[in-house]
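FAQ
Q: What does a multi-component entry look like?
A: The components come first, one per line:
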Amino acid sequence: MTHSCSSRTAGNKALRLAVLLIALCDFTVFSFAQQPLRTLLVGVDHRTVISLDGDWHYLVDQPPARGLYGNDGKVRDNGYALNTHPNINSGPHNDEYDFATAPTLEVPGDWNTQEPTLFRFEGVVWYQRDFDFEPRPNTRTFLHIGAANYKSFVWVNQMRICDHEGGFTPFDCEVTSALKPGSNFVVIAVDSTREVDAIPSVGIDWFNYGGLTRDVSLVSVPERFIDDYDIHLKRETTFSLPNAKTLAGYVHVVGAAAGTSITLRIPEAGVDVSLLTNAEGNAPFEVKAKKLDLWSPQDPRLYRVELTAGLDKLSDDIGFRDIRVEGTRILLNGKAIFLQGANVHAEAPYRTGRVCTDEDVRNIFGFLKDLNANFVRLAHYPHDERMERMADRDGIMVWSEIPLWQHISFDKPEVYAKASFMLSEMIRRDRNKASVILWSISNETANNPTRTEFLTNLANEARRLDSTRLITSALNTAHRKGNEMVLDYPLANVLDVVGVNEYIGWYDKRPEDADAVQWTLPEKPVLLSEFGAEAKFGVHGGIDQRWAEEQQVNVYQHQFVMLNKIPQLRGLVPWILMDFRSPGRNIPKLQDGFNRKGLLSEKGEKKQAFFLFQKVYADHSVGKAE
Ligand code: GCU
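Then the predicted structure of the entire assembly, as tokens:
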């Protein structure tokens, strides 16, 4: 993945600086003097790994976290990272911590819902665990971290390995030179402190769960190995089903000289080809499949794909489909579609806390199926890869988003560099997931030129990274003229699909006022990416009694009157499938720390509105594909 300054608008000095920063980082990041490789291994969940999930010792580094940050604010390599043990019985006095006898937290998982004293803790928690390892000759080993919120600093056997910023995307750090035969240890400091120039920034309407929130493992690969690949249905200028048999993409091999051979096999599609790498270790390709059933919600067909590069072998399960926009229609494999879904936060049903198990994912998709949904918006950040894998298998189309949520420091080049990096991490991890049809670059950001330029550049970058998917964003800045709502902002021009967030009937006006509202919207496919109202499960009353389930239904029924008048409406995405934790929601007995706009409670209790949508989606009674 290379970035070249030339592709950007000439005059934009700040932006050029940001692009330079990005070009410098790319995916191969060398941290400080140690030079271990940090990358993102595509398809790592299909590799054989040594799982490091389980109990990790921990200690809390109370703010200002002097265990991690020295007085100069720099990260300390000579603190807890050394994992020394105190001289208990005899002097001299040394360190006052001991991971070996410290309590434990489970990984993957957030610390907030595991340890009551850490429920509201935002700051630095140190994780440590021992592991045995037998290095094999001619292999390289990476520490894979599915996600850690928000900043993480990694040491193995006292050697600083890598740092990472961003709470929702994976990273892989090379530990080959740090490992030794027998017993080893890893220490990871995770800092969940919210910062103004972070992504997301300080004000968020969800719970800031901290920790090693997704799987951690050791991945050993041959010296030359496949770190990235893109295998998709070739995007022709016009789609024609009979001709939809050409696959295209690339396979990248780290450490491969030009002319290195790679085989790509897809037995069920009659594909078995040899490719050769160029000087960058990349092998772009186009190949015709003998037979190809395209992926769709009705038939979520996945193909076993086998890649071999020298000693490295990797397989994946990939679906092939074409997604595009034509006028105001969204076409999947040439057919107009209407998206019926819900928003979902990565919060586990029943137990709350971050989603990190197969069971969590099964529960969420069970509710989506029950709702008759064919679509899910994964708000507001990339979710656990299990979600996309399940969506691929279940035929649920996906909107995936990076957390540029509301107030972001759009005027800062270093923030653009972070955003661009998060975007490329999101796209790299999930580019081979057929279910993912939309990349979202932001949610509810204020309309001003600095923000619009920032997001316009990000949208163009997303297209450069992946020209096969649609780019979107959720906008909530429509302005009102009497009963008319007008959304005519420049950002919509760079989007393929426009997401609209509105809360008429809850934050804005009375439910019945929606009936008379007329929308003026861009001539593009529009998704109602958020709408809804709060209701506490089990609270019943009149249709005007706020917090009652009947009121929530009433808000939606008036919304449907309004929405059925929007000709370019191509999808419904109510906010939100389940009630979720949000620290700012504190009305006792009603909210108690939860946003209550769910169609279900956090315990999976179905509110009346759930059954309303279940029926609307079964009858396809709101909205049309064309
Ligand atoms: C916003 C926002 C959500 C938030 C929701 C709400 O639209 O995008 O993150 O939770 O409104 O207020 O409930």
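Q: Is there any commentary attached?
A: Sometimes. For this entry: The mean pLDDT is 94.
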